[in-house]
């Protein structure tokens, strides 16, 4: 595994990255300011000429637009070779000096009042940008690593658009201001160039403070190298997924170039090429620029942990919608401005994940060439956009129809991206909804290996666990599911979204091989080792098979625990799935990833114990920000644990008996649980089964029940004799264990079957104190010593009776049993 892919950037590397960002801002500003000075200058010159010959057709703006993209077509392979052959930082420094030289040539051309020379100078300015691009983009991963590449890509894309926007606004405003002062286009264009010289000198300084990188290749330059973009493009076409990413990025730049020329035509139409044209052009073009900045920031934030390809179809759809509305908007209306902003924002949302994949997928040795080929595609798309807009304008096609043309192309792109990334889109929307309804907090995410196959082993509480785990895991997760469920159309749709690995239970060998193959491909695979949803809220018996899968794939096991999901509408709380209202929104869910385990040496019991330790971490998340004193916090955590099992019901009631001293010692029962889960703990003067069905107590209540004529209640017995069954008609006797005021384990009535095919789950078992509460785990010492630990207990834990054990179903078994 490449160290660069898992590295933690140093302060020096972060400083170099941000220096690169600001260098990019300055140089992109210069290129676009020069463009937006030259375009209104060309319009001003054309307005003078057309007064003499009304039949003239203005092609200057299209030529200038082509000058911006043609260097990428002609010199893309050379730029890629430079990026691979030399240190990328060296190329960045050389090209920074080159910009200074060509800006000087542009000033010389303006002084001569020669438009063709000015356009030639702008061609060389664009050539400098083309030579810089692969090195500028390619060095980013060397600085920040693969994990932060999505974030860094968003920053780079967002800031370059910011620089483009600022340069265009400044260029148009400078030219308009100069034209009003001097009443002469040549003088208006010359003055701003000295400012660009100063900014270029500053960018040269930034280029020389970036951390030096190393070359990735030593291949010599040749004529074949100069035309290798055709070969590189051929390699692009061999990799269908990489081609799709590259074509998507190219479409964004073609879309932007087309909109840019339409907006310039609108500005020329409004002011007839005179004073005000540059300002109107810059003002209108600022709107999509602002949108692109906002969209880039949003996409970067969403992709801060993973590259979210689901953004691409969303962005393409919004591009089509906004373009269609632009076709019917008045050029001087607020609607026009708003739709231009939305068009820019949706374009950025479309671009960021695709651009990140173009950078992420190729190897280090080929990244420069791939980026260069991508730039070639971008340039070809730009040329097509210029040609299309020129043809439409020459044919006197209205602005509305021109917008409808780009709408049709955007709809086509939306269809393609939905076909390939539709599942990613649904997953993205589903996770967004889950994060809106549920507040997912995570601990131990660094325990998930950054690369390679990983088998996650979580508890299974709700039908929504896949969403919780997908939201919590730093990597994309695939899930193992019984193939028989695929026949259900709803489940089948879910399986497609999460790229579920179907297995045939009737063919164990094939099932193991299928799951192991997914792990060998480097995927994060999630398998619920219980094999069923819990109806008690606690851990059920683990099923064998997962350890064989991990050993076949030679990958680690990561225990996981989800706390807080019990009580959601997707859990069996209340004795049913779904058919209930949520207790509160947003619902807090805590996910903890335990340390990775070696599949070669780990057995079933060790996995169970590791999952229980993860449960303690998950419960602990809930109280990290409570800000309460230590003792109160421990007892409050114990009350929270009671709310994670199917014993005492939320929003229900239960009773204690007056004169029974035990309940007063159990703060979690009398105060912490009722206050956290809207439950009533009633103190009754006498025992009665008539109105109250759930009773909690010790020896005093036990004796009252034994002497009662009617004892048809659920009795949670915390007395010293709890393991001795109380036999009364209708009585459900539930032995429990509390130590030093903390409830450790509880029995409960056996939960009903959820479906006809559900397997029975026990809530109580003879010779046990019931189920160990989620959030506790055991440690074994010498001579049979056993202690229990968790966030509701002091740091050293509490000692259990010597010989206490935990069975396969997580029942706490008494020593004498």
From TrEMBL:
All residue ranges annotated as the Major facilitator superfamily (MFS) profile domain in the record: 1-425
A single cellular component GO annotation: plasma membrane
Pfam family for this entry, one: Acyltransferase
UniProtKB keywords: Cell membrane, Membrane, Transmembrane, Transmembrane helix, Transport
Keyword Secreted among UniProt keywords: no
CDD domains: LPLAT_AGPAT-like (cd07989), MFS_MefA_like (cd06173)
Domain of life: Bacteria
InterPro entries: MFS, MFS_dom, MFS_trans_sf, Plipid/glycerol_acylTrfase
Gene3D superfamilies: MFS general substrate transporter like domains (1.20.1250.20)
Membrane topology qualifier: Multi-pass membrane protein
Compartments reported by the entry: Cell membrane
Transmembrane portions of the chain: 20-43, 63-82, 94-112, 118-137, 149-169, 189-209, 242-267, 279-302, 309-328, 334-356, 368-391, 397-418
Gene Ontology MF: a single term: acyltransferase activity
Stored PANTHER family: MACROLIDE-EFFLUX PROTEIN, MAJOR FACILITATOR SUPERFAMILY (MFS) PROFILE DOMAIN-CONTAINING PROTEIN
Stated name of the protein: MFS transporter
Organism: Luteolibacter ambystomatis
């Amino acid at each position: 595994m490449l160290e660069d892919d898992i590295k933690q950037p140093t302060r020096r590397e972060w400083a170099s990255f941000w220096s690169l960002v600001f260098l990019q801002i300055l140089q992109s500003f210069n290129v676009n300011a020069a463009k937006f000075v030259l375009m209104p200058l060309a319009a001003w010159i054309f307005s003078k000429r057309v007064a003499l010959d009304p039949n003239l057709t203005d092609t200057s703006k299209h030529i200038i637009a082509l000058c911006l993209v043609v260097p990428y077509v002609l010199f893309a392979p050379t730029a890629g070779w430079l990026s691979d052959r030399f240190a990328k930082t060296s190329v960045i420094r050389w090209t920074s000096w080159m910009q200074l030289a060509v800006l000087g040539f542009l000033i010389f051309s303006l002084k001569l009042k020669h438009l063709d020379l000015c356009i030639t100078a702008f061609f060389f300015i664009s050539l400098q940008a083309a030579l810089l691009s692969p090195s500028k983009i390619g060095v980013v991963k060397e600085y920040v690593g693969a994990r932060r590449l999505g974030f860094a890509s968003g920053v780079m894309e967002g800031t370059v658009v910011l620089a483009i926007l600022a340069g265009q606004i400044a260029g148009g405003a400078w030219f308009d201001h100069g034209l009003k002062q001097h009443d002469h286009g040549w003088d208006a264009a010359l003055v701003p160039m000295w400012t660009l010289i100063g900014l270029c000198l500053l960018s040269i300084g930034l280029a020389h403070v970036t951390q030096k990188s190393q070359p990735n290749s030593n291949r010599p330059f040749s004529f074949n190298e100069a035309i290798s973009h055709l070969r590189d493009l051929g390699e692009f076409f061999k990799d269908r997924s990489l081609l799709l990413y590259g074509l998507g990025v190219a479409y964004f730049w073609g879309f932007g170039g087309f909109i840019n020329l339409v907006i310039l035509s609108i500005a020329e139409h409004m002011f007839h090429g005179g004073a005000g044209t540059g300002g109107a052009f810059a003002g209108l073009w600022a709107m999509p620029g602002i949108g692109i900045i906002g969209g880039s920031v949003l996409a970067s934030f969403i992709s801060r942990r993973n590259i979210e390809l689901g953004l691409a179809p969303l962005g393409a759809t919004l591009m089509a919608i906004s373009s269609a509305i632009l076709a019917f908007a008045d050029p001087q209306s607020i609607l026009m401005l708003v739709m231009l902003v939305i068009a820019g924002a949706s374009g950025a949302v479309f671009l960021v994940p695709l651009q990140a994949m173009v950078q992420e997928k190729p190897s280090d040795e080929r990244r420069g060439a791939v980026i260069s080929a991508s730039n070639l595609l971008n340039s070809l798309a730009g040329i097509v956009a210029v040609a299309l807009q020129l043809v439409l304008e020459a044919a006197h096609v209205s602005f509305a129809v021109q917008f409808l043309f780009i709408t049709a192309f955007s709809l086509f792109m939306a269809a393609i991206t939905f076909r390939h990334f539709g599942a990613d889109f649904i997953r993205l929307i589903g996770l967004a909804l889950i994060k809106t309804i549920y507040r997912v907090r995570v601990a131990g995410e660094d325990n998930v290996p950054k690369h390679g196959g990983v088998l996650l082993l979580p508890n299974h509480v709700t039908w929504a666990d896949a969403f919780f785990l997908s939201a919590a895991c730093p990597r994309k997760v695939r899930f193992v599911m019984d193939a028989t469920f695929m026949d259900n159309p709803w489940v089948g749709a879910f399986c497609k979204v999460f790229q579920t690995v179907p297995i045939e239970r009737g063919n164990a060998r094939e099932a193991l091989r299928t799951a192991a193959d997914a792990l060998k491909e480097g995927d994060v695979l999630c398998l619920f080792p219980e094999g069923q949803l819990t109806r008690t809220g606690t851990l059920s018996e683990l099923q064998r098979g997962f350890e064989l899968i991990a050993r076949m794939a030679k990958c680690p096991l990561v225990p996981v625990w989800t706390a807080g999901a019990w009580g959601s509408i997707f859990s069996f709380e209340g004795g049913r799935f779904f058919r209930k209202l949520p207790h509160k929104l947003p619902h807090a869910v805590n996910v903890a990833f335990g340390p990775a385990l070696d599949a070669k040496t780990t057995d079933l019991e060790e996995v169970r114990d590791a999952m229980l330790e993860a449960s303690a971490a998950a419960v602990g998340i809930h109280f990290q920000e409570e800000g309460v004193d230590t003792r109160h916090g421990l007892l409050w955590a114990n009350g929270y644990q009671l709310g994670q099992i199917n014993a005492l019901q939320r929003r229900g009631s239960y009773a204690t008996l007056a004169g029974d001293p035990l309940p007063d010692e159990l703060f979690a029962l009398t105060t912490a649980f009722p206050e956290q889960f809207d439950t009533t703990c009633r103190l009754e003067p006498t025992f009665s089964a008539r109105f109250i069905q759930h009773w909690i107590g010790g020896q005093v209540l036990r004796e009252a029940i034994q002497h009662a004529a009617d004892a048809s209640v659920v009795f949670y017995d915390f007395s010293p004799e709890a393991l001795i069954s109380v036999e009364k008609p209708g009585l459900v006797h539930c032995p429990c264990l509390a130590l030093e005021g903390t409830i450790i384990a509880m029995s409960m009535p056996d939960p009903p079957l959820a479906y006809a095919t559900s397997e029975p789950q026990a809530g109580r078992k003879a010779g046990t104190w019931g189920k160990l509460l989620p959030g506790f785990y055991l440690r074994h010492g010498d001579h049979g010593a056993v202690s229990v630990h968790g966030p509701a207990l002091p740091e050293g834990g509490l000692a259990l009776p010597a010989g206490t054990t935990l069975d396969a179903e997580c029942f706490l078994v008494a020593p004498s049993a």
